[in-house]
Amino acid sequence: MYKQPKTQKQAFRFRRFCRAGWAAFRSMHREVTIGRLAARVADSSLAKGAATVALAVTLSHGTLMAQNDEERETRTLPEVQVIVAADSLFGTPEPAAVLTAEDLQHSSVRTVGDILALLPAVDVRTRGVGDVQADLSVHGGTFDQMVVMLNGINISDAQTGHHNMDLPVDVSMVERVELLTPSQMMARGVVAFSGGVNIVVCEEYRERLLAEVGGGSYGTANAALLATWRAGQWALTAAGSYHRSDGYMHNTDYRHGSLFLQAHRHAERDDWQLQVGGQMKGFGGAGFYSTTYPDQYEATRTLVASAFNVHRWRSARLETAVYGRLHGDRFELFRDGMAEAPAWYTGHNHHIGSTAGVRSRATVQCGRGELLGGVDVRREGIRSNVLGEPDSTLAAPYTKAASRTGLSLFGGYHLASGRWDVQAVALGLYNTRFGLNYGFAADASYSVRPLTWRASLSRTFRMPSFTDLYYQSVNQRANAALGAESSLNAEAGATVRGRTVSAGLTAYYRSGSDIIDWVRKPEEEVWYSMNHTKVDAVGVDVTSAAMVGVVTLNAAYSWCRVMQDAGEWISGSALEYLRHKGTLLLSVEPVKGLVLKADATYRYREGRYTDTDGSVHAYGGVLLVGAGAEYTWRSVMLYVRGYNLANRQYRDHGGVPQPGATVLAGLRVSIE
After folding, report:
1. From CA 409, how far away is CA 426, in angstroms rounded?
2. Among residues 121, 266, 265, which one has the least CA distance to residue 194?
3. Looking at residues 395-402, what average pLDDT do you find?
4. What is the value of pTM for the model shown?
5. How far apart are the C-alpha atoms of 67 and 70, rounded to whole Å?
6. Measured distance CA(495)–CA(508) in Å, rounded
7. Coil, strand, or helix at residue 145?
8. Which end of the chain is more exposed for a tag (fewer CB within 10 A), N or C?
9. What is the H or E stretch that residue 493 is in?
10. Best CA proximity match to 243, nearest among 259, 260, 258, 261
């Protein structure tokens, strides 16, 4: 529930605190220098694009605020919690798994990637720490086959899935994360090859101020600030964060900062959600992409913006979203000021990717069910000196460009009758580069409290990334003639929910055709991107949770097997996946205000990697143990958290070692 300040004095103190916090963040942000990020990545075209998106959101916000002023002056705003998230669609299947803010209180997460790693069957392969670079996949898929959404808006990167986790949000902002199957994504009008995640931020709309500072091992430090308040009929949120580290080994230092603004308006017939966020990031990449070169460096900038509206009639509902994303990337194989580049090195890689789209979805009551339909127009483009076709009209350092536009139409029917809930959706997509493709999804569930049975069948596909199409190097040859890859997915499962205990079981099978993979022949050193491989995946996910008195326990286990037919070719990435993943989270509150936490994660990864000395190793298994403690007194919380306390040596990706034992501590203040 939204609470007004009890007195004018309290309101004045709250506003003064907000202004002081904002001034402190701006001062800190001006002092932050992320290498040569601004000079190389944010050229004039990126700045103009960012300004255009931000101006459009600002003007639309101003227009909405200006209308019906007289009406707002005379109307009393009811005390309600406003939730207008773009993912809360009418007539869509429930997510396969959900982690709420309450669930996250029982774990010691430090990054958004840590949160996603708690979801069953989700594989988070990190290079470095602090979310500097992480690849997401699910059910044995690859990082390019998973869709990432922010408040229901698809912000996946068309250049490469390596950039999907460049998000302008901090872990302190996350209110809920959802794991969605391919069929659940299609019911939302989004095509996802192996699945997707939806990250919901700033969902609690009570007037408050949250500030956090922390630090610890390897010169790690962080600061975050979040404020929410009301302005007429609007609920407003502003949040910012800054993270830095000296690195846990040579050339793994990082700096990144973000700013996120959000506005919500709730009315009888219309809901609005406006959001805009930006992130700057720079990090040393010690062999992140090739162990041969330990002095790599990467700098990125990200800007996302969207406007979402829900309009309701008695028996119908129309949802419309307009969104955009800009992403700038500069990659240095030899970091400026750290390593001297050889004569054959022609210069750094520069990329600017852009995504813009409009999605509209309608539901109409029809008999005992609902008809649903919608349209999605999405344009993706890139300018680069590496990716795309030659373009003489571009300004240096960009010499190449590529773009494509997709138009998708989807429709279906949803019926909820008694204990049954059934939905079927069909989707057709025409892409200016890849032609026509199609998908479909059917979901059914049957509930007899406390048990729910469910099953689904879907066909999905994925377009090649710009990296798949164009990337060339000494030992890599991309293929501009690639087509889409497709899969047929089947799932079945059951969940049981009691007052203090819940459990779930899911089995799945995915048959993939024309899979895009980087392959080579045994006698050659050059890798080629091809629609060559057939990859099938089968697996089981088991989850359970229990709350007994002051003890909360969560446990999950996922098993997966990927079967590949690549003929005489050697696969580059399709067979690196988690065969086993087990997690155990324990939270105990022995006395009021004190919470003790412990967690254990076991991961067994298939595949092999080449170390810095050229030797080949199997990933194998690793058991990671962590623990933490939090003490809250009134509005102040003190915490200390430990990660990989057994100091295990392991790799998530390639020959990049992960950090050993790490300890972080901090202070959080929350004023309401």
Report:
1. 8
2. 121
3. 95
4. 0.85
5. 8
6. 15
7. helix
8. N
9. strand 485-497
10. 258
